[in-house]
Amino acid sequence: MTDTQIFDRVAIIGIGLIGSSVAQAIRANGLAGHVACHDADADVRARAAALDIVDSMHDDLAGAVTDADMVVVATPVGVCGDVAAAMRAHLKPGSIVTDVGSVKGSVITAMSPHIPAGVHLVPGHPVAGTEHSGPESGFAELFQNRFSILTPPPGADSEAVSTLERLWRGMGADVEIMDAEHHDRVLAITSHLPHLIAYTIVATAADLETELEAQPQDDEVVTTREVIKYSAGGFRDFTRIAASDPVMWRDVFLLNKDAVLEMLGRFTEDLTALQRAIRKDDGDALFEMFTRTRDIRRGVIEARQAGRFQYTENGKSSDDDA
Amino acid sequence: MTDTQIFDRVAIIGIGLIGSSVAQAIRANGLAGHVACHDADADVRARAAALDIVDSMHDDLAGAVTDADMVVVATPVGVCGDVAAAMRAHLKPGSIVTDVGSVKGSVITAMSPHIPAGVHLVPGHPVAGTEHSGPESGFAELFQNRFSILTPPPGADSEAVSTLERLWRGMGADVEIMDAEHHDRVLAITSHLPHLIAYTIVATAADLETELEAQPQDDEVVTTREVIKYSAGGFRDFTRIAASDPVMWRDVFLLNKDAVLEMLGRFTEDLTALQRAIRKDDGDALFEMFTRTRDIRRGVIEARQAGRFQYTENGKSSDDDA
Predict the structure, then answer these.
(1) Which of left, alpha, beta for A33 (phi over 0: left; psi -120 to 50: alpha)?
(2) A231: which residues sit within 8 A by CB, 6+ positions away?
């Protein structure tokens, strides 16, 4: 047992980008004596086992969670409830169950009924990730200097909350605690809406290609080849997040529907105002708005959420503030 | 005179990010014997002179363009016509006039009437840049492995076009030639619409802060502090391009109005469809769309417009494909 060890046994359910990174961060920082893992997909299990990042890989959920002091559910949010129901009978008394989903209200609703008395549900969300998916994409440093938000339900065990907080801090994250509803609104504007918009513009560009195929001689048509070729002009920034995992994001939008639709409504109002300014040649309105948005960027840089930013093609991304 | 020298004298009009980078790239690659410069802003002239990146800095436009073999107009596109009119009487017979604007049709319309017979107008657009502005932000490597698009008007002098092509290749760029109207449509989707959307979502987030000030105790309100704090969830990707120069972008939207409004219309249709899918809980439609957009990202990576990407806080950005 190392000085830093918090748990005898941690179980990770679902070993994609986040689950794999949690496993590697726990091992790199000596936070658990044993990391057990289960993934519903046999192919993913085999790939993760080959990476040698967990101590035991289990074909069944029960095998992974049995005797675990901490269970980290790192599946798409849409199946968190089913996972909770399936592991219910195997959870160790006094253990903590958490998750890593980008939506918290619906996760609590789905999981809570299946958590037995004496087991502590403390949902969480590390605000970290890359556009890459799968166990191979994970890395131990993903959470360093990132925020991890915990959303303990009313009446949650304070010791369980502080133990989970220790886990995240041990992996290098800063921890914030807020209620689930507030989390879901904050993330709707900072993460969900940006992804929705990025997906849309990339799809809009793809449809231009479809037109090309129908009218190959028409010079008016912009080809996707050109969209890609000249993507350095701004489009590229959108393609990165539009490459994120489709299942994860489908679930996020469906399960944070109200907050996403509200933020989308605000965005559409603002976009319509800008469209009107262009149509009416209102340069002053455009200039005023573009000047205002600069200040937000400065805030992002000052908050050390931007700055020296790197990503590579081989599935690892990180931000190193210089 | 070096082996690589193409011109005795190049004049750069406007020394912001692009003008400064052109000056430094010309010097670094030995492409001209003398780089003269004028900027309408006395403060910018003083700052650029202090950087020691040009051979002569002129308070008046005439002083810079006199005897120049190549004039590079690197002002916001909205003033290209005025610049052409003002320098008309001072242009050297046989010289080439080009620009670097993100819109080409309106630049040709504005500049052409002022270009005397015997002087060659060959508009251009290097698809490169950063979110930073001003002469201090420029660097010699900005155009390396980037596309520079030339849009010679019908009947343009082919020798002038190929000389300008040599200049861009000498600065490390790949050169493409297309007609101005096609350029403006391609850039509307790859650059102008992405910037418009990024400006909008950053403004939408800023408005949430205004609400907070009105209702400081309301937990429902998301603060801009939180928007910034959790920007790693996706929002950050938008703030970068929303920090770009307000004057430049005001001019781009006003001068490429038709193509921008068309692409915006397509985007809004697609966004509305996605909004409807969320409202109707149509997970299949979301999944299908999100899967499709991944392919575009792969194309961007393969085209070497993405990959290893870096930017820093000190005003220099570059893409190095690993």
Answers:
(1) alpha
(2) A239, B190, B300, B303, B305, B306
Helix pair angle (B283-302, B257-279), 10° resolution: 140
Which residues of chain B does A249 touch, with a Cβ-Cβ cutoff of 8 Å?
286, 290
Amino acid at A288: E
Residues of A in contact with B294 (CB under 8 A): 242-243, 246
Q: Mark yes or no for CB contact B267/A190 under 8 Å.
A: no
| Phi and psi at residue B164, to the nearest 5° | -65, -35
Q: Quick check: A57 and A49 in contact, CB under 8 A?
A: yes
Interface confidence (ipTM) of the complex: 0.85
* B255-286 pLDDT tens trace: 999 999 999 999 999 999 999 999 999 999 99
Residue A308, class by beta-carbon neighbours within 10 Å (0-12 exposed, 13-18 middle, 19+ buried)?
middle
CA separation for the pair A248, A87 (Å, rounded): 21
Q: Which domains, and CATH codes, for chain B?
A: 7-178 (3.40.50.720), 183-308 (1.10.3660.10)
* Cβ contact A146–B232 (<8 Å): yes
This prediction has a pTM of 0.85
